[in-house]
Amino acid sequence: MRRILSFALGVLAITGASASGQEIFRSVQSANLPTAEILPGGSWLFEVSHRSVNPFSEGADELWGLDGPMVNRLGLAYSAHDRVQLGILRTNFLDNVELNAKVGLWSGGSEALPVKMAAMGGVSWNTDVTVTPTVEENEMQAYGQLIVNALLGERFAVGAVPTLLYNPRLADPDSESAFFVGLNGQAYLTPSISVLVEWVMGDANAETPEDPITFGIEFNTGGHVFKLVSTNQSRMNPAQLLGGAAVEFEPEEWMFGFNITRLLPF
Q1: Fewer CB atoms inside 10 A, N or C side of the chain?
Q2: What share of the chain is helix, strand, coil (3-state, %, to 5)?
Q3: Which residues of 114-131 are buried (b: 16+ CB within 10 A; e: fewer)?
Q4: Residue 36, phi then psi, degrees to nearest 5
Q5: Domain span including residue 95
Q6: Is this prediction's pTM over 0.85?
Q7: Is the dihedral of CA 29, 30, 33, 35 positive or negative?
Q8: Residue 152 in contact with residue 158, Cβ under 8 Å?
Q9: DSSP readout, 214-236?
């Protein structure tokens, strides 16, 4: 446990050149993975996100999965500085509550290939876990991430998010750490519309053996960002998302989801 906390705190403590510069992604997160973008200092951002548990293949009788249960997430982020963003997330899956921080590390590259780097870390608690009798003593999770983003040809943003996750599987009485890599990309069709895709790869386990994959469309209106997605992963908070998906990424397993974020004008 000390190793991963040292990793996360060490990464967050790195300071570098100014993190301001050309915007690469137009949102502080992809569908699930963080981007290197940080809100302007003093800004607040509110988030509401849903993921359907049942797939589109349920058909019209089940409103293509929307009549079934949903995983919900609420989030609030505050930019304490142009390079420091703090956040709190809460999802109804195991009542997971997370505190996190993101720090801009570096912005540079060339005019033709701008690059940004940031780091993010978080600690979460699963406050309603009944998987095994031992879980009450094993409900905390933590993670540290390095975020690398680049813009290709002004229209294609790409990112890589290597992550070290502490305690990926709550049902195991002995807590361990696992390594995951998230990849994401976004193609800008117009100043306000883009398409996105992301893929998380890493150590699988018996409960969630598949890689989470998500694709969708983003509408950016300035104050609001709307994302409509299809995915094989209904879990959203990082410690839950990264551990893997329960179903394969096949059309009959795709589920609907959306993210809505609002920049609060305080």
Answers
A1: C
A2: 10, 50, 40
A3: bbbbbbbbbbbebeebee
A4: -80, 0
A5: 2-264
A6: yes
A7: negative
A8: yes
A9: EEEEEEE-SSEEEEEEEES----
Count: domains in the chain:
1
Count of other CB atoms within 10 angstroms of residue 266: 7
Name residue 163's amino acid.
T
- What are the tokens at 72? 């919900």
CA separation, residue 234 to residues 41, 93, 171, 206 (Å): 32, 9, 19, 17
Rounded CA separation 213/210 (Å): 9
Tokens read off for 189: 């069709």
- Token look-up 């609420």 returns 74
List alpha helices for the chain, DSSP H: 2-13, 238-241
- What token pair was written down for 133? 């009798």
CATH of the domain at 183: 2.40.160.40
Burial class (CB in 10 A: 0-12, 13-18, 19+), 176: exposed
